Amino acid sequence: MGSTAIDGLISGLKTTDLINSLMSVEAGPQTLLKTRVTATDSFVSALQGLNAKVAALAASAQTAAAPSSWQAVTASSSTPSASATASAGAQPSSLSFTIDALASAQTSVTGSLPGLAALFGGSVPASFTVATGSGADAQLTSIDLTNVTTLAGFASAINAAGAGVSASVVKVSATDSRLQLTGSATGAAAAFDLYSGTLTAADLAAPTPPVAVMARGAATTTAKDAQITLWPGTGAAQAVTSASNTFSGILTGVDVTVSGATAAGAAPTTITVARDDAALKTLASGLVTNLQLVLSEIASRTQNTSTTASDGRNIVTGGVLSGDSAVRSLKDSVLSAASAPVNGISPSTIGIVLSKDGTISYDESLFSAAMAADPAKVQAVVAGIADRLQQAASAQSDPIKGALTLKIQGQQSFRTALNDQVNSWDDRLAMRRAALEKTYAALEVSLSKLNSQSAWLTSQLPSTSS
């Protein structure tokens, strides 16, 4: 029987309210458990947020400590007709050259064609061959012309063959159509010819080779390599060619792309590869920024807040991580790693400054001056700081054995145990409520019986003698 069914049935008591009041008292321990679950959730969330920032600091420090990170270089060009990119392995250097020619792809166009047969001198052969390149390296692609009778069909057959040539029909007028073929790649090795029939390499090497239907020599645009001349005007001048307009690895780790020929009498183009100071500044400032994020997170999570009670008292509440020894140890270790001298050199001399309030800042002007004066010293100091920070941060955030990681796992296990206790209290309280409802229901039944007896006795009184 539900509590609503017995509420005030005989006694007039608000039984439901009584039971709810009693249950509130009974649920006191569970309420305390739920409060602890909420507090643990907040604690775990704060630890996870801090751990993520510590892991980012460890990654940043690992990068800053790596010698390869300090080999960053940038490439620049003295003219707009060339550009350069530097990658791993590039070293500070320079290279001058003139741009003699740009790479191009072959484009061939037929004369006016009334139909496909005119291309082959009167009749369409059963097949034809596209020859790309020359000599032993020539690539031969035979294309079947069975059932191909139109220029459009011929162009489609070429495009479907993947022969390194694309074809299109150009309609000049109602009675004038032409066939245009374009090589898919630039460079002399991408030049092509078209031959009637199916040919082999031996056919092309014969003393009297077959005559091309469309020969590369008749192309409107000739396939040719790009060419530059290194060290122009000197006895060491050397021509270098490339099938494309990019000369890969012209210097170790440096690619040069050309876009226009050098005008007669114009100065050569000079590619300069130099230390990338901007990248090195970012390396150092990024390390400090990640450290600042960790310290800021600790400060915000341990900050005290003040509230005023109803009686006017000032109540001070600590942050969710206040008083935690692991967090305090983390703060001390990263501050020490960032501020302690490296080989007797203070980090503040190269722009990593520890302030009186315990914060770390990055001074770009100091860093730039130190780099200009002694880049090797700056690298040694920053790499040393980074190595210490990486060790300190990894000891906390390592996904297997990090102190913060293990603390989070422990708190998560504790939260699971608390939730199990809360759930067990649900069953206990349900049984207690059922017992109270049964007791009050029995009370109502007993009162009903007493009322019945009272009514019977009252009805018998008149029949008794005085």
Annotation, overall tally of beta strands: 18
Question: What is the first-to-last residue Cα distance?
Answer: 46 Å
Helix and strand element order: HHHEEEEHEEHEEEHEEEEEHEEHEEHHH
Give the strand order of the largest sheet, numbering strands 1, 2, ... along the chain: 1-14-3-10-11
State the helix count: 11
Share of helical residues? 40-55%
Radius of gyration: 44 Å
Mean pLDDT: 87
Number of domains: 3
User: Rough shape?
Assistant: elongated
Uncertain ranges: 1-5
- Please state roughly what percent of the residues sit in beta strands, choosing from under 5%, 5-15%, 15-25%, 25-35%, 35-45% or over 45%: 15-25%
Structural class: alpha+beta
Biggest sheet layout:
5 strands, antiparallel
Task: Explain the overall architecture.
By secondary structure, the chain is of the alpha+beta class. The protein folds into three domains: 1-72 and 277-450; 73-103 and 225-275, no CATH class; 107-218, no CATH class. The chain has helices at 3-6, 15-26, 28-65, 116-119, 151-161, 201-205, 277-302, 325-339, 364-373, 375-397, 403-460, and strands at residues 73-77, 82-86, 93-101, 107-109, 127-132, 139-144, 165-173, 176-183, 192-196, 226-230, 238-242, 246-251, 254-258, 269-275, 305-308, 314-317, 352-354, 360-362. Helix 2 runs antiparallel to helix 11 (403-460), helix 3 packs antiparallel against helix 7 and helix 8 (325-339) packs antiparallel against helix 10 (375-397).
